[in-house]
Fold this protein.
Amino acid sequence: IVDEADRANGDVLSLLLAFCDSTASSVFVRPDTGEVIRPHADFSAIITSNVESKDDLPPALSDRFPVSLVINEAHPHAIATLPVDLQALAVSLVSAPAGRRASLRAVTEFANIRGAIGETRALRLVFGAELATSIEESIKVARMVEVL
């Protein structure tokens, strides 16, 4: 598994392309020993990425991974680790459209620091001013509904 392959620099991307070519042509020569390494016949690779569309990947990389899955929600067990009052918010933020989306890591960090520095400040530090304002309004509405 290659995590966040879209963020690889040129040297790493070149190696990744060589490793993930067809098994007939994939080859890696160790620069220190000259040893030629070929993949096992059953070799396969999985990459993860944070791109919005497979079209955003470099074409050569996209070509080596013809199947793509979009996962735009957090695992329920991960959501369950958050304080109950943030779980619905996290589900919404993680699956929101680009520009309004936040990572589960960000929600977790907000949960960790809000008690120490206050909710408003924690929101702004973790999510930035614009998204923080929207989240703060959502939290207020959720609390009002909870009271009813």
Summary: Strands lie at 28-29, 36-37. The chain has two domains: 5-64, 76-147. The longest helix spans residues 129-147.
